[in-house]
TrEMBL record:
Annotated SMART domains: HTH_ARAC
The protein, known as: AraC family transcriptional regulator
Top-level taxon of origin: Bacteria
InterPro entries referenced in this protein's UniProt entry, alphabetically: AraC_lig, AraC_XylS_family_regulators, Homeodomain-like_sf, HTH_AraC, HTH_AraC-typ_CS
Taxonomic lineage: Bacteria, Bacillati, Actinomycetota, Actinomycetes, Mycobacteriales
Organism from which the protein derives: Mycolicibacterium aichiense
Alphabetically ordered keywords of this record: DNA-binding, Transcription, Transcription regulation
Molecular function GO terms recorded: DNA-binding transcription factor activity; sequence-specific DNA binding
Segments forming domain HTH araC/xylS-type: 210-308
PROSITE patterns for this protein: HTH_ARAC_FAMILY_1, HTH_ARAC_FAMILY_2
Pfam families: Cupin_6 (PF12852), HTH_18 (PF12833)
Length: 310
């Protein structure tokens, strides 16, 4: 497992959806759906993305925007067009006064808008799962990241737009995988640009630190120490510890602890495993040991953390 796989496992926990939008001006919608990650691909025409408290961003055909977290924004044909539609959590669509628009603006299979031949066409994919595992990667992204068509020669945005309106056996699963590929390609391209990647991302390519990180990702229950991690990657303990800390910004054990507790948080939220079973899966010998570390990190016991989901 690596950071990108962990991200997808986390944000996909509560599903994803793909929708094609077809719109004629004037149009403007306020998005406050709280989705951890949303991908917006403009295929025809243009749009303006206006984040709350930020500068407007023009989107042209082939451009892709990635929005993260709970930041709210307006997507419109023009910066001066007032919002007419509100997108709420769960992708519930209403007027500003709360009238439901789910059926009024449905144009066909996964297609939504105000005109069947709209000048602006875009495909939107949203991940709705909140996850502790994905928090490290999400935290490394800006609220809005944009890749321009001229700078990113990817066929995936148009492929997603084409497939979004098709129907048939396995189409939902096919779209899910295509959306995942688009997100993975976007993130790899974004983090390859100077200054965009966090230290732990670039450390993943190091010949010693990278394999050690992957060992921790893949085998969190193993009784890792600095000494046996160093031995596993063919380094001395002291040299490995210095190199890991310099590249990642955390010590090996601090990084491992954060990963284990993130996994524990997701298991507590998404499964009915006992605290003891969760502890064993993430490398703690007893429920008490997990509870002590978990409360130190989250301010809540595992039982209290789990109780919040109900």
């Amino acid at each position: 497992m690596d950071a990108l796989v962990g991200l997808l496992d986390g944000v996909r926990a509560h599903g994803a959806f793909v929708l094609r939008m077809v719109l004629d001006p004037p149009w403007s919608m306020r998005l406050q759906d709280e989705a951890p990650l949303t991908v917006i691909c403009v295929t025809d025409g243009g749009a303006v993305l206006c984040p709350d408290g930020g500068e407007a961003i023009a989107l042209h055909p082939g451009d892709v925007a990635l929005t993260r977290g709970t930041a709210h924004y307006v997507l419109a044909d023009d910066i001066g067009t007032p919002a007419q539609i509100v997108i709420h959590p769960g992708q519930r669509c209403t007027t500003l006064t709360g009238e439901d628009l789910a059926f009024a603006m449905t144009l066909g299979v996964r297609t939504w808008g105000n005109s069947a031949t709209g000048a602006t066409r875009a495909v939107v994919g949203a991940y709705e799962g909140h996850s502790a595992v994905s928090a490290r990667l999400l935290g490394a992204l800006p609220n809005i990241a944009v890749l321009r068509a001229a700078d990113w020669a990817s066929p995936l945005p148009q492929a997603l737009a084409t497939e979004a309106v098709r129907d048939g056996p396995g189409q939902e699963a096919f779209l899910d995988r295509l959306l995942d590929l688009l997100l993975l390609d976007f993130l790899r391209t974004w983090f390859s640009r100077p200054g965009n990647a966090p230290p732990w991302w670039t450390a993943g390519t190091d010949e010693l630190v990278g394999p050690a990180i992957r060992l921790m990702y893949n085998e969190p229950a193993h009784p890792w120490t600095v000494a046996n991690l160093a031995a596993a990657v063919g380094s001395s303990r002291a040299s490995f510890a210095r190199r890991f800390t310099a590249l990642v910004g955390d010590s090996p054990i601090a990084f491992l602890t954060a990963w284990r507790l993130a996994l524990a948080a997701d298991l507590l939220s998404s499964s009915d495993l006992t605290v003891g079973a969760v502890a064993r899966q993430v490398g703690y010998g007893t429920p008490f040991a997990l509870s002590t570390a978990f409360k130190r990190a989250h301010g809540l016991s595992p039982a209290a953390f789990r109780a919040r989901r109900t």
